Amino acid sequence: MAKKVIVLGETRDGEIRNVTFEAIAAAKKVADGGEVVGVLFGENASGFANEMIHYGADRVLTSEHSDLKQYTTDAYQQAILQVCDQESPEGIIFGHTSSGKDLAPRLAAKLGSGLVSDAVDIEIEGGTAVFTRPIYSGKAFEKKSIEDGLVFATIRPNNIASLEKDEARSGEVQSIDVDIKDLRTIIKEVVKKTAGGVDLSEAKVIVAGGRGVKSDEGFKPLYELAEVLGGAVGASRGACDAEYCDYALQIGQTGKVVTPDLYIAAGLSGAIQHLAGMSNSKVIVAINKDPEAPIFEVADYGIVGDLFEVIPLLTEEFKKV
Ligand code: FAD
């Protein structure tokens, strides 16, 4: 049955995040021929709105209210609830990002709705959206659907393919008035811990280092390889605990969950808690000098060797491509 589905778009560092387009593709499936309404808040929201339309949204609601410039739970919750009042959607899709993970359960509770979080696939079965989501740290998958009320879900970045961009697509972009009051949180300053570069959770290529990298200096060859491949650098908790890099890079059960096309794991053993964050990567390449390291059990390609010899060789070879 055709539904009206809302998608909350996200911007970061002056760019619209890819997960926005993936969420639109997911919303299209859930809408099942119905309408997909994009919602975008913050600076230059109206400037980005057309991008949402080019990727499949039918129309977009924007607000550049000063309290929505930076994400805060309070302000975004109030604004989305007003959009829901105005639009009466039958579905809501967010990215499974730090803001999506924060906002979606609160909104679901406020709206008295169910929520499927961290979906990696959607199928329509007998008119019902059936979501696939990983469980037990990615070792198994379960299928879930919401039978009553709003179909509300967050989708894991890099899993649901966005639709082909069509710049000829057009749709209405409407700036809306939102009333935000009694804020309990105000962002005064944003201090960035990682400098620019590719967003780890959306990166198509990740070069991750572990304790075997031995120092912050030891991460340099990993950054060089990541740059040549247009990817991002990640790390094991072992490397973060040893202060070789910032915790913002940590991948795993208590870090970020990533699904790149290519994951290069260098000098990390492959502890179960690390695998929980990366084992669904499409291709895994492990570089470790210990042939018995558990990372080789999940790797598609394994290189037994010293990362300080192997990584510069890979960088040189990829530079030639
Ligand atoms: P190690 O296990 O010490 O492995 C280092 C590897 O480097 C070894 O295999 C060694 O052979 C190899 N090596 C050394 N020198 C070289 C070289 N020159 N060239 C090539 N290879 C080399 N861990 C995470 O990563 N993410 C998490 O989110 C996470 N959450 C956790 C949550 C809990 C509750 C607990 C208890 C633990 C968690 N951990 C997590 C920690 C996890 O159990 C491991 O301790 C950690 O992942 C180990 O990091 P590592 O692989 O870098 O280090």
From TrEMBL:
Residues in domain Electron transfer flavoprotein alpha/beta-subunit N-terminal?
Answer: 5-195
Specify the domain of life of the species encoding this protein. Answer: Bacteria
Membrane spanning segments where?
Answer: none
What residue stretch is flagged as signal peptide? none
To which protein family does this belong? Belongs to the ETF alpha-subunit/FixB family.
Q: What is the name of this protein?
A: Electron transfer flavoprotein subunit alpha/FixB family protein
